[in-house]
Design goal:
Elements lengths: L3 H14 L5 H8 L3 H13 L4 E4 L5 E4 L12 H14 L7 H15 L2 H13 L12 H13 L1 E8 L5 E14 L2 E8 L4 E6 L3 E10 L11 H12 L3 E7 L3 H5 L7 E5 L5 E7 L2 H10 L4 E5 L1 H25 L1
Antiparallel strand pairs: 1-2, 3-4, 3-7, 4-5, 5-6, 8-10, 8-11, 9-10
The protein binds a DNA duplex through α3.
DNA sequence: CGAGTTCGAAGAGACACCGT
DNA sequence: ACGGTGTCTCTTCGAACTCG
């Protein structure tokens, strides 16, 4: 005969594994009488599990979807994976989710054996990333947008652009992209009849229009991440530049963030980068940090800007050298 | 076709037994 | 003594079946 608590967990497991169970079958599997099964079902109901019982020839017990999850048993690697996922979520920049993830993490780590706990901490410490610097995103907004993507539901919202100008949008949401501490929505803008990228933190609570739409094949052959990358690195800015870099693309792919510039190969020794910014100064400063040689293709003003910058640096260095002698 | 009957299953009370 | 369990018995409920 199984111990009481073990039997309750087994009973729960059985109820979850099949839509309906006869009391007699449960009793046989658990090695107890039907009366004891009824008492156990009562215990589970007392703990808050919604177990429905249907009388009659086709009757039986079934576990309904409830408001709380039944107890879960994790293997060591599963617990480690959940712990790591919660740590990542706790720093995801999504409001409410961060708090919930942290709360769940505290509960999980309290229950994990000390050895597993140390392993999880060590693992996460080795992949520690930079502190979250992006804007906070409302979980409800994110959930509504994700729901619209999944259910092909047209959404309406007010969008505040980079110049704080608010416009009303009706969109057919295609997908969400998380990049560099920010969330982006890729959607077909109905009134503009074109694809658009929206910063989720600038979306004022969206509502469903109730209308469904036929799914479209997304921009960039459905590669939303590439589309967002291109949109936010160049298209969104008033100043755009095209620069040839004297290094193979593979050598630079790791060091140049996709949100800063779009790389494309030219030949085995060179590649070209398309980038954008609010002003020439930002692009020039970025170019100065590159440890490769480059040729400015566009715009000619960038070359002038770099020339002036170079002259200033020359004069500064000249004075410094003179003072040292 | 509707009312009554039958059957099978859950629900529950009372009591006894057993192990801790 | 107490909690858990088994046995017996009765009630309730819903579906299937029967009959006028």
């Amino acid at each position: 005969m199984l111990q009481n608590s073990t039997r309750l967990l087994r009973l729960l497991g059985m109820l979850r594994s099949s839509p309906s169970w006869h009391g007699a079958v449960l009793a046989e599997r658990l090695g107890v009488t039907e009366r004891t099964v009824r008492r156990d079902v009562d215990h589970l109901r007392g703990l808050g599990y919604r177990i429905s019982a249907t009388p009659g020839p086709d009757g039986g017990y079934s576990l309904e979807a409830g408001t709380t999850l039944p107890p879960l048993l994790f293997e060591e690697d599963e617990a480690l994976a959940v712990s790591l996922a919660l740590r990542t979520l706790a720093a995801s920049g999504v409001e409410d989710v961060e708090e919930s993830a942290l709360s769940a993490l505290v509960k999980l780590e309290h229950l994990m054996p000390p050895g597993h706990n140390r392993k999880a901490r060590a693992f996460f410490a080795s992949i520690q990333k930079l502190a979250q610097t992006g804007p906070k995103v409302d979980q409800a907004v994110l959930a509504t947008l994700a729901g619209g993507c999944a259910d092909h539901e047209q959404l309406q919202f007010n969008y505040r652009d980079g110049k704080a100008q608010v416009s009303q949008r009706t969109v057919e949401p295609q997908g969400l992209v998380n990049a560099e501490s920010r969330w982006y929505l890729v959607a077909w803008d109905v009134s503009r009849a074109d694809w658009r990228t929206f910063r989720v933190d600038r979306v004022v609570p969206p509502i469903s229009s109730g209308a469904r739409f036929e799914p479209r094949s997304g921009p960039d052959k459905g590669d939303l991440a590439a589309y967002v990358s291109r949109s936010v690195s160049t298209a969104a800015y008033p100043v755009r530049a095209k620069v040839i870099l004297h290094a193979p693309m593979q050598a630079l792919a790791q060091s140049i963030c996709p949100l800063v510039g779009q790389l494309a190969p030219l030949d085995s020794q060179r590649c070209i980068v398309h980038t954008g910014a609010h002003d020439l100064h930002t692009i020039a400063s970025w170019l100065c940090t590159l440890e490769v040689e480059y040729d400015i293709q566009e715009p000619p003003e960038l070359l002038e800007f770099l020339r002036a910058m170079n002259a200033r640096i020359d004069r500064t260095l000249g004075r410094a050298i003179k003072a040292a002698h």
